[in-house]
Structures are given as C-alpha cells and as structure tokens.
Amino acid sequence: MLIHQLPLDDAYRALGSGPDGLTAAAADRRRHEFGPNRIEQSAGTPVLYRLLSQFTHFFAILLWVAAILAAIADRRMPGQGMAALAVAIVAVITINGTFAFWQEYRAEETMAALQRLLPRLVKLRRDATVTVLPADAIVPGDVIYLSAGDDVPADCRIAESYGVRVNNATVTGESQPVSKDAATETGDDLLHSRNVLLAGTSLVGGEATALVFATGMQTAFGRIARLTQGTTDAPSPLLGEISRLSRLIAVLALGLGIAVFAVGRAVGMSSGLSLLFAIGMIVANVPEGLLPTVTLAMAMAARRMGRCRTLVRHLPAVETLGSASIICTDKTGTLTENRMAIAAVFVDGGFVDLDVIRSAAFSRTHRRFLECALHCHDLKASSERPAIRWIGDPMEVTLVELASSALADVAALERLHEIPFEPDRRRLVTFHRDLDGTLLFMKGAPEEVLARSSWIAAAEGGQHALTPEASGRVAGAAREMADRGLRVLAFAHRILPSGAAFDDAERELVLTALVGFEDPPRPEVTAAITRCHEAGIKVVMVTGDHPHTALAIARRIGLVGTSITQLLTGSDLSRMTDAELQIALDAPEIVCARVTADQKLRIVTAFQRKGAVVGVTGDGVNDAPALKAADIGIAMGVSGTDVAREAADVVLLDDNFANIVRAIEEGRAIFDNIGKFITYILTSNVPEIVPYLAYAFGRIPLALTVIQILAVDLGTDMVPALGLGAEEPDPEVMRRPPRSRRVRLLTPGLLIRAYLFLGSMEAAACMAAFAFVLTRGGWQPGEVLSSGDLLYRQATTACLTAIVLMQVVNVHLCRNTRRSIFSTRLLGNRLINAGIAAELALMLLIAGTPVGNWLFGTAPVGPAAWMVAAPFAFATLMFEEARKAMVRRGAPVGRRLSSLPSTSG
C-alpha cells in the first residue's frame, strides 16, 4: 500500500518513526543514506564544450574551410588580398560564435531556481524535542510542524491538522486552495490525496503536524526537476533550415570551385592561378555575413519585443514562435489572473452588483452577512511582509476586504471558539461575543449550509422561514454559479443564548447570502485568442485544474464555443496509447484538465510527432518540463515561478497574453526578412562570379579582385542587408496560416529571382561598366593588363561601383516579393536608409581616397563610369515591377519567380 493509504500508526512504523520523531543519530544515518533535502543538478555539458560547439557547426566549418583556402592561396600567390580575406572570415566566425554562446549560456540557472522555491528553516521534532533546522537537514521519518504562510519542504503525510488549506498551483496547477486533513485515503492518486502535502507548495490556512516520507529528488517536486533535466530543448526550425541552407551552399560553392579549377587547368592555366580562381569562386558563393545578419536580425526583433514587455532569452525563439501552429496554454496565471475575485452575490432572491454591496443601505439591511464575511475566517495578520496585510486563503482575503469597505463602522468581535473547515464538514464555524449573546457565523458549501438553515434573511432586514420554494431558488442559484465555473460559498448566522453549548449550535441558522468566486480571465486574452485563430494557430488549454472550471473559462474567453469540444482529463490520458492520443488531438477544440507535469509533456510531444511547431505557456513548476520540451516555451514574468522562467525561451514581463500575438508577428517577419536578405546577398554573388568566368573562358581581364569581393560581402552590403532583417512585419502576416516545416529558405523561386533575374541584370551592369572604362582607355581585346596598371584599376573600380549602385536599387526591390516598390515607404526603414548612406560613403572612400585606392586596388573614375549602371538599374526596376504584378494576379510565371511564394505577403 502507498503511504497515504496506510493508517497513521502503520505509516509511522513503515518509516521507522513515531509521534516524537527521529533521534538525532537515526536522522544522521538517514541523511547519509538519502542525501540532503535539495534538488540535485544533473551533470550538464561542460562550458568549454558548449563554447567550442559554436565554432564547429556546419556553417562555421564551411567558413573555416574558406579561411584556410584563402590562407593557402595567399601563400601560393601573395598580394592578391587573400590574407585579408582569411582574417576577415575568422573574425566573422569569432564574433558570431562568442555572441551566440552568451545567448545560450543558461543551464545552471534552472536548478538554482528550483532550489530557491524550498524554505530555508523548518520546525521539526528530534529526540522528542521541537527544534529548528535548515530544510536540507530533513530526512524521511522526520515529524515537522507547519502553519499558514509556510512553504512545504518535503513530501509528507499529515498526522494532525487544524483547518489546513494548501496552494498546490505550482505543482498540480489547481487554481484554488485545497483542504487537507489526516484521514486515511483509499485512492491511488498521491498528488491529489487529502492527507499528503507536497514539497514546493504552501499552506494558506491552518496548522499541521506531518510525517516526512520523501525528500530531495524523491519528492514529486524532485521528479518534475528530473523530468525537466532529462528533457532536451527542441531544435529551432530556423537553425535547422540554416543548417540545410549551409549544406546547399557548401555543395554549390565547392562544386563551382572544383569546376573552375578543372576548367582552368584544361585551358592551360597554371595550378596556382587555377587554385586562386577556384578559391575566388568559393568565396564569392559563401555568404560570410549570413550568420551575423541572422543573429542580429533576431536580436533587433527581440529588442522590439522588449519594448512590449516581452523578454527573449534565446534568440532563435523569436523566429520559432513565428512558426508556431499550436499553443498549449496553462490556465491559472496565464489565461487568468491567478487571484480569487467575487463574481456573483445572491441575496434577497436575486443577484446584486458589488457596487450595491458597498452602499450604506445594503450594509444596514444585510449587516449580518457582511459581519460573517469579515469575521468568519482563519486568516493571520502579516507582520513579516508589510506589502501583504493577510496570510491565508485568497477567497477569505477578498471577503474581508469587501466587508471592510462596506462596513465603515466595523467593530472587532471577540472570538470565543472555532470549528475549522475540514473536507468532510465542508464548512467553517466561528463563535463571537455579542451584545445579544453568542453570535455564530457559518461559511461553507451551499448544500451543507442549506441543510442546517431554517430561516432566510429578508430584504428589509428581518428574516423569513426557509420554505421548500425558497430553498429551491437558493439551490438553483448555486447551480447556476457552479455552471459558470465559480466556486460557491453560502453564509449563515445564528444568535445563541449566553453560555449555550457550541457542539449543538449548527442548526436553525439564518441563511444570508451566496457568493461565487472566480479566478478572472485576463482582459486581453479574448482578443489575443481571436487573433491566434485568425492566424491559423490552434490554442489548446492544458491545466491541472478541475474540468468544470477549465471548460467554463475556455468558453468565456472564446477558446471553445462548439458542442464538439474534446475534453481530455488526466485519467483519460493515462488510459490512452500514443496513437490514440495523437488521433484525439485532431479535434478542432481541445481542453485538457487535471493533467500532471508528465502528461502535459506527453501532449506536447504528441503534437510535435504530428508535425506541429508547439508553443507552451505556463507559470508553475509543473509547467517546466513542457516549457523546455516545446519548440517555444513562454513563461509568465510576474506570476510565474523562477523554475518556469528559467525553462522558457520567452518571458512575458507583464504576464500579458496578448504579447504572444505580437511575438508571433515578429517571428513570422524574421523568416520573411531572412529570405529577403538571402535574395539580396545571392544577387551580388552573380556579378562576383561572372568576372572569373569571363576571365577563364573569354580571356577578358579579371573585372573584380578578391579583396574587392570582400569589400562588397563584408563592407558595402552588410548594413543594407541588416536593414532588410529589421523590416517591420507585413500587415498581412497574421492573416495567413503558420509556416509549414516543409517551407524552405532557399527555394527554386528565390534562386531563379536572385541568380537569373536580379543577379544577371547586376552582372550585366558591372561588366558593362568594366568594358566602358577599358574601351574608352584604349584597351584592345587580348591585351594583358597588370594589376598595377592605372586603366585596369579604374576599370575594376567602375565594376565595383556598378555593383554597389545596383545593390542600392535591389535592396528596395527585395523589401517585398509581392507589393510594388511604389506602395511602400521608400524612407520607412531607417536602417536601410543608413545602410545605403554608409554603402555610398564607403564606395567613395574606396574609389576616391589614396588609402582606399591602396587597400582595394582602385583608382578614381569620372561621373560617366558611375552612370553606366543607371539604365540597367531602371530596367531591373521595371522588370521587377512587372514580375510583382504577375504575382499579385496569380500568373504562373510570376509565382515561379516569387522568392517566398508560401510565406511572404
């Protein structure tokens, strides 16, 4: 039998203990056997290994190869700029890897947060003497003492209780305090057993003596910790797609490099020159700025989200959230405010507003109800925490505050006796001294109070007999409130003669009111869920709370609204196979209630097996495993526990669920923006490749040197590319379904648009500018020019200038794959504007200053050379506008030339 199913004496014997606790010697032996009462951190990946992994992933390896080849080429043929290229590539790898490492360095914080939830000192009995020891000194068999406001330090069986109510929300997800007592249980559910207190929870009322039966990692709290430790973070879809893109680029670049080397040798070039050209081809096709640009694009999106009180702890999470197709959301503290508020009051045969209750007229005619709300409780005044006036049940705190505001002339009543709230009795009774004798107040479950009432308070201040008809109206009102998901309490009183016995006083009461309590939904939640539905995102409630309460809240916020809602409870899940669960999750509306931490994790993984990108929201310890396993974990910053925040990728600093929608919008924009960036970068690859092909096969002087390629890739192109990564989300981005995992960054449409359309026009412009300067300077076909020849340096400068000017046009063309450039604000993106200004300024420095001429092998050219690219830029603009028009009309050619046909708006 389980510990909660044993009679108390048998439980003591099973643990080798007794009411006087353990001896110090026995406790010391057990501490060596079971270890300290704390959450142990599993061995993580060494810090050095995590750091090195940022420099050894596939794309980083590709860049290392490019840098090594550049260094080899510099040794074979010095003076071609290859050394500078190698240094620049290594710098890119170093900066990006270091930045990414610091973003991901967080593993140690999770277990530290788990430990912070446990209390530091505990009152217990050792050697038949009450003492106070640190919490980590507790062992199985110890007898501990707890009272209202205390945190529970270990899993323990209640031995004695007095009005115990416990907040289990952090472990089980229940929104309302649960009553506990020492009665022996018959069921198998340890987590919801009435005589068990769980580590990590807290007492909101009453006092208890308890027998510890599990400590540290053996507690339910520890099992959740182990589950969190054993759960691996879901890989980011974006990082997976970048890895795939890296492999494609590697194959393309190496393939072209090998081909150029082979062709060069075939046409009689030396092996050194062929190698130089091969390396130039590889370098031209490797976008060295891809990783820094992607990282900074996500960082800028995270910064924009930060202005909306949303903290992004891991940068890839920004884009992952944009891919989310399922959001599994907790209820308590996420969809609701995690507080108890009065939602309905039934008096005089009808419901009244709270404003009426606070009026002077109501306080005169219903004074006994307000006095009962004010005095019938077991709250404790807070002396240690000034910001909190009362410690105890949140419902009782709400009642006391309401009654205090309504009774301006309130006077304290001396308490004579109390019969505490117990699960079997389901009512609290207090006795107070009054001028008329002894005043009894009762508060509890409506059926319990009704059964003991003979009278009902009247509107004029008197009382009437509680007839069957009146009792039926009260019971109907209680059912109506319960159907709304409210927790209902009934209030009654009786005046006893002085000296009357307390044990026979709970009869012939005067029923005064019914009050319904709710954990109110957050005001912004309904609109946020509506936007999620419009964006094609399925929202599923997954809570540890009661199914009735969960369904009521789900209907109220618009999460469900049909009769075909799939309600899954924890007991349902325990009977389902994985296949049955995946089929059940196909339902259009789903509410999961009474689920445990491992069941919530199972739901998340089931959705992931179905191919969904899953976001999980939560605030409790019980949410941590699912938060970590999800593709994107979202924790509450105010009401959430440290455990949930440390396991999550995104933290809502103000607990505003609506910010999730804003984050999704930003995430969707990132994928689109990276596609725009790739189009822009690949476009400039073509005019970098064509000069090598023209040199190798057309015997035309090399129009662009390696160092000039570096000037484009890591110089003039970088800031405008970052500007594309910082584009605001498209207005239509939340009116389309989530991006499928099958949608790729590098699509045939993107390659056609970048290489065969925009890139070809740019290559034509740069080669035209190169030829214009050469022919005007008297160059004849077949004539060999040295790298130091002034005419050659001017011609390469003209080629470089044409690339830069064409890229100025292309950066605006890449801002949207569908909408006309004339329908967007040309100056709307300040970073692009700054990038263009920086691009042109850098080009002027490269072409027009002695230092720039010396570093990049350039020479000043006249205005005519600058203007050669103008007709090509105008033609590119017109052709691109025609293509976008075809895309908007749905023409097949236009769709094929669209770079992101499935995602861009």
Instruction: Give the % helix.
Output: 40-55%
The share of residues in extended strands comes to 15-25%
Largest β sheet strand count, sense and barrel closure: 9 strands, mixed
Low-pLDDT parts are 899-905
CATH topology of the largest domain: Calcium-transporting ATPase, transmembrane domain
Tell me, what is the CATH class of the largest domain?
Mainly Alpha
CATH architecture of the largest domain: Up-down Bundle
CATH superfamily of the largest domain: Calcium-transporting ATPase, transmembrane domain
Oligomer: single chain
Discrete helix count: 35
Mean pLDDT: 83
Query: Class by helix and strand content?
Result: alpha+beta
How large is the radius of gyration? 36 Å
Tally of separate domains: 4
Shape call: elongated
| Cα end-to-end separation | 62 Å
Give the number of DSSP strands.
26
Q: Summarize this, please?
A:
This protein is α+β, with helices and mostly antiparallel strands and about 900 residues long.
Q: What features would you describe in this structure?
A:
The structure is a single chain. By secondary structure, the protein is an alpha+beta fold. It is 49% helix and 16% strand. Residues 899-905 have low confidence and may be disordered. It contains 35 helices and 26 strands. Strands 10, 11, 14, 15, 16, 17, 18, 19 and 20 form a 9-stranded mixed β-sheet that branches. The chain has 4 domains: 1-233, Calcium-transporting ATPase, cytoplasmic transduction domain A; 237-295 and 670-728 and 745-896, Calcium-transporting ATPase, transmembrane domain, CATH 1.20.1110; 323-338 and 522-656, 3-Layer(aba) Sandwich (Rossmann fold), CATH 3.40.50; 342-517, Calcium-transporting ATPase, cytoplasmic domain N.
